[in-house]
Amino acid sequence: MAKPKIIETTLESLVPDDCNYNEGTEFGNALIEQSLAKFGAGRSILLDKNNRIIAGNKTTENCANIGLENVLIVETDGNTLVAVKRTDIDLDSEKGREMAIADNATSKANLKWNKTLLMATAKKMNINMRNWGIKLPESAKGEPGTPDEPKKTSKIIVEGDEQRISHLINELNKRGFTVETV
User: Fold this and answer.
1) How far, CA to CA in Å, does 65 sit from each of 15, 27, 45, 91?
2) pTM value?
């Protein structure tokens, strides 16, 4: 195995994806920023050969928001797994376990597909989105909430700090949910 080339640079040298399929969410971005502020960077992002961000656009944006500017680029051809080793964290500590939870929670909370971009890419590049677990409608017909399908309603109770609940309420409103606070 050849020794990988490591380049030290800053966020300014990275180019965001101008066709990012994940619009993100206000709540998810708040969680990413909170996680980065509390734990620092915990995983790598993915760049193409031109420093364009393939994966990690939202992480990069939030790093900039909190002032994490330094970047280490590890050049590889995809035949070597790149692992980030945090020498300051033990997985079986409170911080390690909370960081593992935060990593999964932020990924889930910040995913909002841009279906228009996905549909255009599927057509242009002949990509079957179902192979990746993404179900795209052929048209708006048949999507939940359209006149041909009745709406299903549920109620939830959310407990937490006011700032996080406020972000969640804003996100739910943006997605068309009716939100009542008591």
Assistant:
1) 16, 15, 16, 27
2) 0.74
